[in-house]
């Protein structure tokens, strides 16, 4: 039986669709099974309270950024911010970049208005183009091959930063993305012939978003079958019963490091919604990793219609998350931040004094990102 799946492209009528799927299914893994196991081990330490976690990177990647110089800049930014987290927390940090696959985005509407014209929504470069015309916004399965090639280039550069050092590999950075487009993700599942385990080889650490975590849908089913460490976004509409059921489906053996719950509730709702969920998960005995995404629940629009986030709101949710977790006797392991490696002006706060300053370097393909100085400020406030 084919399970339902939301947020999927409409492209199965494309004449090359079957050939593209066959090519992806025969492609080399983007990441190695041994790397995935190492990432899982590092997250296991965080689940036990012995390490921290940083997930950081672009809201949506661009194929044009999959070059060594840009990727190296992003990796250095992750390392810099993780070093601050390690210094402030006194613990080692498992580092994950939102990179090498963050090419697809869920959208709240199938259409958006750009310069007064109604167009199909931009769903990330894996699906369609950011260019604002009807032809560019068509869903094109050939973009899956472009995403694979771009991801491969990014992974190569990330590995170059490991420099063959076991010490470096023990903390990453590994790559992570939202596993949204099932045609792409399912084609990259591979079986370890030695152990029989199935791994999603498009990334080390995939996660399911708030819009696709339905218990009886295809995303949860796919995640239940793979042996990667996995994440699930938990928003303000989540209830304790549903989250515990997700834990039962995705972490049936109660394995530390298997499941990360990424909390994204908004600075107001978190005070009511989070504590009952933490209690229920702990009572059920699931050793999950708890991290805060203090950005997605705090997006606002300026009078001109531009999306932004206030750093003060981000800090407010992050610190509330830590206080609630610690009050409930759980480990607030870390942060999931949308952040650029350059001095963008997309969020208000710190070096971006007001909404007028947003226009200086507002470059995101989707949602607003912190710049490095703002991200360091969030780390300092969290610890």
UniProtKB/TrEMBL annotation:
Obligatory cofactor(s)? Mn(2+); Co(2+); Cd(2+)
Write down the Pfam families for this protein, in alphabetical order. Answer: DAHP_synth_2 (PF01474)
* EC code: 2.5.1.54
Residues that bind Mn(2+)? 59, 296, 338, 367
Report the coiled-coil segments. Answer: none
Q: Which reaction does it catalyse?
A: D-erythrose 4-phosphate + phosphoenolpyruvate + H2O = 7-phospho-2-dehydro-3-deoxy-D-arabino-heptonate + phosphate
Q: What is this protein called?
A: Phospho-2-dehydro-3-deoxyheptonate aldolase
* Source organism (scientific name): Lentzea aerocolonigenes (Lechevalieria aerocolonigenes)
Q: What is the lineage of its organism?
A: Bacteria, Bacillati, Actinomycetota, Actinomycetes, Pseudonocardiales
